[in-house]
Amino acid sequence: MRKLLITFIWVPLLFSCVSQMNKKAATEVLPKSYTDYVDPFIGTSAHGHTFPGATVPFGMVQLSPDTGIEGWDWSSGYHSSDNSIMGFSHTHLSGTGGGDYGDILLMPTVGEIKTEAGSKENPDEGYRSRFEKVKEEASPGFYSVFLEDYGITAELTATTRVGVHQYHFPASDQAHIILDLKHGIGDSARETWFEVTSDNEIVGLRRSSGWARDQFVYFVAQFSKPFDSVQGTKSGVDLKETNKLDGDDVKAVVNYTTVEGEAITVKVAISAVSVEGARKNLEAEAKGFNFNAVKDQAKQTWNEKLSKIEVEGGDQVKKTIFYTALYHSMIAPNVFMDVDHQYRGMDHKIHKAEGFTHYTLFSLWDTFRATHPLFTLIAPEENNDFIKSMIVKYEQSGQLPVWELSANETGTMIGFHSAPVIADAINKGQGDFDKELAYKAMVAAAEDPRRGLNWFNEDGFIPVEKESNSVSKGVEYAFDMWVVAQVAKDLGKMDDYKKYSNRALNYKQLFDKETGFLRGKNMYGAWDEPFDPMAISLLGAGNYTEGNAWHYNFFAPQDINGLIDLHGGDDKFIDKIDQMFEQEAVNDNHMAHDVTGLIGQYAQGNEPSHHVIYLYNYAGQPWKTQSRIRQVMDEMYTSERDGLCGNEDCGQMSAWYVFSAMGFYPVNPADGQYAIGSPIFGKVTIHMDNGNDFTIIADHSSTKNEYIQSATLDGVNYEKTFITHQQLENGGVLAFNMGENKSNWGTNISSRPTSHAIPLEEVNSIVEKKDVVYRPYITNKSVLFKGSTEVTFKDVTPDVEIYYTLDGTTPTKSSIRFETEFSINQSTLVKAIAFDKKGESSKVSEFAFKKAFYNSGEEYPKLRINYEKNATYDAGVNGILNGDYASDNLRDGKWDGISGQNFEAVIDLGQKEDLHQVSIGFLENTSSWVFLPKEVEFFVSNDGENFTSVGSYKTEMLNDHPIIGIKRFSKEIKGRYKFVKVVATPFDALPVWHLGAGNNPWMFTDEIVIE
């Protein structure tokens, strides 16, 4: 691989900036400024969630304006719907669906000192300033805006670890720069302090809790002009001159007297390690106060990165969209170590990266699909360090990143998609890391029992009642298992290869041939009803993650040919994809913000659909891929501020466009194969790191000429509708002849890409052909009964024999064989097992029948509640005393959900009864803000007024997300009583590590059981 040359440019009293240039760029003047094609404002409107501020490729600093922090569309701190600015902070997320960061905010002002930002409705009440978008300017590494209320022009630029501000003040004897350490985007400051260390330097810390549950940002800020004075305030009161202040809401005000047009430059270095680390970063990357030197260096650095893909032909608009997408794809992950290689680890201890650059911000559910495969083309060395960073995070925390942010695992989204990133690099010969250790980390992820993997690994699917989003998780786990299998095979671990290869086929258990969809089933193998393929569910509820059955029906990138077979062959598979585009383009859940960019039920605005169009190639109709790809590129990507149809998601939306505009896409992002689409530029050259160039030529390409008529590779006729990564690495010219009409190019079976989870020649030796026998289930509506109840077993698996026990022992073929319904009249633990004709057995089913008091329409028992019902989570009038248990699914309609209040329920039995036990169930689903109560207490009474406690339970606040499940609290009762009361007290607020820290938690309660 071609190494990068590190060049240090030292400018006395100016700046030293680090430039990473390849050998060619180090000796030649770049032929053009690729940054001229980049518009950082694209995606700052609608739901793109991008920021327009200054950063360098994969930089630690993202210095950008904050216009709002109030919700989803302000995840990056900036939205084009606003007309006022709060200030300029140094860390920002690019295109995420949740907010955090916004650390170390500076805001220049003149006039009366104000230490609160104020509101958008009335900026005058705080230090906010109005601005006009015509007076904004942004380019890679640079941002500028005129602050109307103060007559100040603010300019921003950055190095890797230093943000540089330049403020042009009017003449004023009341000029100020506010340093707000409370400010953040969607998080809460928990520790803030500053100290004035010289007449032009302030140091300090902002420690916060939000999406990243415990984030440290130390800083050193140096000003080009000595202070007149520095004042400080804590909690917005008692502003006074000071050199030091600490608390959870600390702000500093730097005061100046300025002349007309005077420029004050501020350079702010940050560190997650210490003030000393920030100071080293400042000294290494920023000496002096020459703003333009940093700006020019940032532009040069971006030009070097953007030049990795050279586009010719096409109009200015398409080039702007393309290079802006390429720019957005290289904002994250972010450097997360100081210049001395020290960084804060997942254990929050300080470590030193030996021989690599340590990174953070791994939005892997998004970026495993196309962003990381793009890095293998344009940034393989950085991608190698991304993987090394993932591996050390595993060593420090015991798990590979899922969605990691500033040394905090957020647990956001699904799958364990570090695995395909690692496997892809190994497959492409870029695995410059400890493969055995990487494999150990992948296995740890595959065997982690949390997030439904315990069910997936044991039963081959995740029951809908045991885990939310069970279908999405199931199909994505199947893919991740396949990539673990590939690495096992590469390392010669053939037993593991067999095990994980078989797990890669588990997605098939979710395919319903009657409806033609991958859909949810319960633990007994019965399809979840009712089923509506258009119904969208959210993270934390329903069977799909931010989507519906249409969005996930085509996710088996490891086994596309197997998926085609499930649908009944090529024609039926193609027809199913066609139907997806022909459905009504609606989102039936207004809360599912991410389901956007709809063409029928194809959703370009969210990741699960991104590969679907390319699947036509696998079934022999590549012209449909070509046409639909052009439609998406033309309709869903523009050069306007609202030019992204959904969240940019740390580069994934952009990487999709970069690949598709070049003419190919990694459908399986770990097999080194790219499906061909429809290139839009006359010529694209990828400058590989090994020194080779791969060129894509699209003769006659135009808006109308979207179809490939023929192709050649290095002058030889090329009929395949895919190309491999190795072919790209080898260099060469892939030339297409484009036309207005569809053609037969690439339709032959030999031309198609193939995708088999297990190579056909290995199927007989690898596939474990074991019949699936599902657990028996009962036909009873509930396991709670009065008097007596009849029990009947059934099984989804045909022609099975069912055996059961009533004494709690494990049933075998020697137990009671079920022939017909039987009766029980006391609380009984019933266990059952099924055997098919071959003797294969199911797992054991358990049914804890309880003889209990509950309301089935009679007057007694009578329920009285002392809490306000929630309209969304309401189990009904007697829902928590109706003899029917709720499931693990918070949206099954059987839960009473309450927040910000105590739970209290009194049950009147109508007369004194001999009582033995009382219990109540609570759901634990912390990612959906549902926590167990802080305390549960049980009482009895005979007059309904004077209650006696029979015991209580207290729980501890969690420090991490547990497995979703139901916990029942119970207490023994001895005696005859008429009334029973249950009281549950919630925790005061969500914990500091939680995304919703500080907000009220929810308690979800169901069936009170009195025996």
TrEMBL record:
Residues 785-845 form the GH29D-like beta-sandwich domain. It comes from the Bacteria. Residues 882-985 form the F5/8 type C domain. GO terms for molecular function: carbohydrate binding; peptide-N4-(N-acetyl-beta-glucosaminyl)asparagine amidase activity. SUPFAM superfamilies: Galactose-binding domain-like, Six-hairpin glycosidases. One of its GO terms (biological process) is glycoprotein catabolic process. Its cofactor is Ca(2+). Keywords: Calcium. Residues 277-740 form the Glycosyl hydrolase family domain. Pfam families: CHB_HEX_C_1, F5_F8_type_C, Glyco_hydro_92, Glyco_hydro_92N. Residues 37-271 form the Glycosyl hydrolase family 92 N-terminal domain. NCBIfam families: aman2_put. Monomer. This is Glycosyl hydrolase family 92. It comes from Flammeovirga pacifica.
